[in-house]
Amino acid sequence: MMAREPHPVLTPEAPVAMPERQAAGGRYTRPRRHRRWLPPLLVALLLAQMAAVMVTTAVQQTPTIDEPVYVATATDSLREHRLRYNPEHPPLGKLLIAAGVAVADPHYDPAYTGTQGEVGRHLLYESGNDPWRLMLWARLPVIALTLLCGLVVFAFARDLAGTAGGLVALALYTFSPDVIAHGSLATLDMPATGFVLTSAWLVWRARRRPVPYLPAAGAALGAAVATRMSALPAVPVLMALAALSVLAARRSGPGPSWSVPWGSVPWGSGRAGRLLGGRGRRVLAALGGAAVVAVVAVAVVWAAYLAVDPRLRFAPAEAVPGPAGLRGRLTELLPLPPAYGAGMRVQFGLEHYRWQGYLFGRLYTGSRWYYLPAALLVKLPLGLSVLGAAGAAAVLARRRRRSAAPYLLLLPAVLLAAAMAGSRDFGTRYALFVPVFLAVAAACAGPLRRRWCGLPAAALVLFVAVSSLRTFPYYLPYANEAFGGPARTHRLLHDSNVDWGQDLGRLADLLRERHPGERVWLVYKGSGVPSYYGIRAADPRTVPPDRVHGLLVVSDSAVAKARGRLAELIASSRPAGDVGRSISLYRR
Predict the structure, then answer these.
(1) Quick one: pLDDT at residue 322?
(2) Strand 362-365 to strand 356-359: parallel, antiparallel, or no bridges (unpaired)?
(3) What letter does residue 409 receive in the DSSP assignment?
(4) How far is residue 490's CA from residue 513's CA, in Å, rounded to a whole number?
């Protein structure tokens, strides 16, 4: 006898927005015609506003610290087809950036020698290119992928909680300041997050149709791992979830929603399956599902490296650690390209370095395990935190929703634990998956069609939207209202949470318009070249303090780490405003 179907709201691909409504007398009537086109219209409007603010942000920001490296590596891969720069990150995300670079068609000197950072600055500022135009084209593919990820957020949440839930999740996603900030940059954080989310959604859908969805989930997982190595902890989790989905599919049995009958699926069928028995067939089928995800993911990683250089030549411009120690030797045993293992060893070396961190006004050396949770408390919009927490609690507490908990909560929890164990307390971009998965979880907060639940949820979504729009276009230094808003972020956090070098162009505009001819002293943290933007300034740390008169300009990350002479200069100066909430001005 076929098992009873699960509740329709939590059945992947089941109708989630009830197409009919019950009228008096037990009859059903068709919904009003406008309800058919209203959800697609709202989806389009939400994504359109997100696209508008991301493009505006991308146009106005100068290169952040990491972007020149990725753009130069993308250009070298596109022109020279070699694996030379930035081995610590796999090539897929940079191939995405290369799609925009190809349109910009910059001048590039492949014979230039230097570190990956020097090559990036040479490409942007010393090769006759327009850095504004080149950076915009490099950022546009990431913006497009971020918008596509929004569709996945909507689809995942709709599968879990219906169309209303999907719209709530999409609204929270499209107004999330961290998502907007990093989705408008030519970096790898948002692409990796989008691929991980897509893989989780496809594995969830495999509970009903494993044959088409598990290979697709493996491809998305491979894309994440081929973009950032920080996605590696997702591999065993998604393999386990794939096995769980296969078991759930076997329990539900073949039905009209299947693309092929279960009997034609090779996992656990045939003579071997009969010898194993029922339980053995289930185990074999589950292992087969996990293997499919893993094999496809590995194939995608190989394909990314082969797309750069079909001969897989690896000639790094900078020294790469050898396979020393247990972890180093394990990198050579992985079924991945040699360049991937070399990149892992570079990452291991970076993890051994004792970096400086800054949290809640305190500068420290090393890492703090609680850094990311604390930083997320500051950076997440309050409405998103409340709705996401309520949705996560509802998923765990309600029996009908509990089957979604491993897919929705386990994966971000494992990724967050892995990120917390890292040594680089540089920003919430290392946990960008948290606001994305929270947005999906928020859809499960309650029956959104009921007024007692729908109205508070709508109010919280509106609060997130207002909070996000108030920080426009300065999304990187966002902080929620509980911590004083964006104007106070630099007192609590540093680096990519606040100041990533993005406002050098805005500083040049301000100096030209409001302080023409003044003596300027500059301490800038970033990859930009101040002189290119017309900034004529000297470093105040190179002269005696009594000679520093005029306008003192200091990046907020440098303010956070200020010690010695710079700290004395700041303490003896008068605040004179800021630029983009990331650069502070002082009058001396």
Answers:
(1) 83
(2) antiparallel
(3) I
(4) 25
Can you tell me the distance from the alpha carbon of 346 to that of 425, in angstroms, rounded to the nearest whole number?
18
Query: Is residue 277 exposed (0-12), middle (13-18) or buried (19+ Cβ within 10 Å)?
Result: exposed
| CA torsion through residues 484, 486, 488, 489, sign | positive
Which residue, among 439, 456, 424, has the nearest Cα to 380 in the 3D structure? 439
Distance between CA 313 and CA 342 in Å, rounded? 13
State the pTM of this model.
0.90
In 3-state terms the chain splits into helix, strand, coil percentages (rounded to 5) of 60, 5, 30
- Burial readout 40-62 (b: 16 or more C-beta within 10 A, e: otherwise): eebbeebbebbbebbeebbebbb
Which tokens go with 220? 């998305």
Cα–Cα distance list, 552 to 65, 423, 549, 577, 584 (Å)? 22, 32, 8, 11, 8
Whether the CB-CB separation of 187 and 65 falls below 8 Å is answered with no
Residue 561, classed as helix, strand or coil, is coil
* Alpha-carbon distances, residue 19 vs 1, 168, 455 (angstroms): 29, 19, 22
Q: Closest Cα to residue 574, out of 546, 542, 549?
A: 549
Show the beta-strand stretches assigned E in 453-581. 520-523, 551-555, 574-579
- Across 14-28, 336-350, 365-379, 565-579, least confident range: 14-28
Number of Cα atoms under 13 Å in the Cβ half of residue 431: 30
Least confident of 14-23, 503-512, 556-565: 14-23
Length in residues, the chain = 588
pLDDT in tens, 416-444: 999 999 999 999 999 999 999 999 999 99
- The model's pLDDT over 18-34, given as tens digits with 9 standing for 90+, comes to 433 343 344 445 555 55
* Torsion angle of C-alpha atoms 326, 327, 332, 335, degrees rounded to 10: 130
What distances in angstroms separate CA 363 from CA 59, 156, 369, 428, 558, one per listed residue? 33, 40, 15, 17, 11
Rounded-to-integer distance, Cα 127 and Cα 273, Å: 64
